[in-house]
TrEMBL record:
<keyword id="KW-0564">Palmitate</keyword>
<keyword id="KW-1134">Transmembrane beta strand</keyword>
<dbReference type="InterPro" id="IPR010131">
    <property type="entry name" value="MdtP/NodT-like"/>
</dbReference>
<keyword id="KW-0472">Membrane</keyword>
<keyword id="KW-0812">Transmembrane</keyword>
<dbReference type="InterPro" id="IPR003423">
    <property type="entry name" value="OMP_efflux"/>
</dbReference>
<protein>
    <submittedName>
        <fullName>Efflux transporter, outer membrane factor (OMF) lipoprotein, NodT family</fullName>
    </submittedName>
</protein>
<dbReference type="GO" id="GO:0005886">
    <property type="term" value="C:plasma membrane"/>
</dbReference>
<dbReference type="Pfam" id="PF02321">
    <property type="entry name" value="OEP"/>
</dbReference>
<keyword id="KW-0449">Lipoprotein</keyword>
<comment type="similarity">
    <text>Belongs to the outer membrane factor (OMF) (TC 1.B.17) family.</text>
</comment>
<dbReference type="GO" id="GO:0015562">
    <property type="term" value="F:efflux transmembrane transporter activity"/>
</dbReference>
Amino acid sequence: MFFSNKSFLLQLLAAVALTVTYSCKSIEVPVLPEMEPVPETFLDIADSSSIGDISWEAFFNDPNLVQLIEAGLENNLDLRMALERIEIARTQFRISKGAIYPTMDGIVRYRSGDIRPNLLGGTINGDRNVVNRLENNFIGFQSTWEIDVWGKLRDRKEASFEQFLATENGRHVVVTNMVAEIAKLYYELLGMDIELETIERNIEFQEMALELIKIQKMAGRATELAVQQFSAQLLSTKSLAIEKRQEIIETENNLNFILGRFPAPIPRASSLLEIKLPYAMDVGLPSDMLLRRPDIQQAEHELRAANYNVEAARKEFLPSFSFTPYVGLNDRSLPAAFEMPGGLTIGLLGGLTAPIFAQNRIQAGFDREIASNKIALYNYQQRILDGYREVMNQLQRIENLRTVYSLRDEETAVLLNAVSTSNELFRGGYATYLEVITAQSRVLEAELSKTNTRIEMFLTVVDLYRALGGGWK
């Protein structure tokens, strides 16, 4: 039995399509590991609200801090780079979206000379009786459209869209971290101001003690060794004040860097003790954290994008169909092409592409997308675990710091009384100068520790606010 060329070609294409389709059906996407369920509550607390839902303007009740955050949102360079990354992702989405629609190209083809016949009697491009428009002069338009039969292009588009959403949430991550960092540096500055005031106040006390011990020496009631001990203590405290001033300068410069500006004075409240600690016990449910934390949302969109990419890679095994319609002026000579209607040509070309000899390459791409999908899933799980861990740590830390601060407040009060008592006993000859020096050193340490604990309380509340997804709109 004999077949015409056209019939044989159709049967060949059908066989190729069936073969590739069968091979594609054998490619199954592996089942991803299941995620561990998120606990229902934090610390058995089932609050219906979360501080993460509070805007940062309302959460931070200091107008100076609010102004600094506003400046950071406007000038921070990391945030500006995040905005540009969003533009890149948006452009990529437009590119993948445009792949679904046909393209339109203008074509001008000029061929000089005659078409030479081959040794078999036909033209170079085929039979001499078949007029091929590619052999002629052609002026017109040609469109190419790949028919998305299997949804491969749609999957690529959806993957790009999810990646765009992930990039948008990446900007929210930058905003959240920036707001938290500005607040923490601001509270550290206020705490350092109190520490510097404490050190300077102790310098005054130690200078008075040094003058007293000098008078005691002149009266024969103290030795030169006592004077040297008091002098050494005073010099150590003065050097501590210089170091604290340097820390303040560096912290101000770090804050200005986040604000995207050169070093400048940082306006701030008069004292950290005058600022009310933001309320931080309304933590809500872990499910609220999943909805609020931008890094978890970012990982979720990246996981969805990976799922779409796997599906698109799996459909690469299937044949692709394309149509190429064209319209224009076509003839063997350029002047004759403009003679209407004989020169007008309208046609439609169809194509089927089956990846018969590209199975290894497609399989490698498919395996790569599966591995990327698993990585995205593990990253999503890790973000959830990390968020839950952070919330739990900060909750426990806040409660412990409240207790520690109360104890150190009592310790400072006791040691201040001890300083007064040691000075009175020293004047009466009932205490040695070493006891006075020890009392002054311990009260300085206790006051600095108390201030540091209060700073830690504010920083922990800020970290809890960030961990619950607060700080972005």
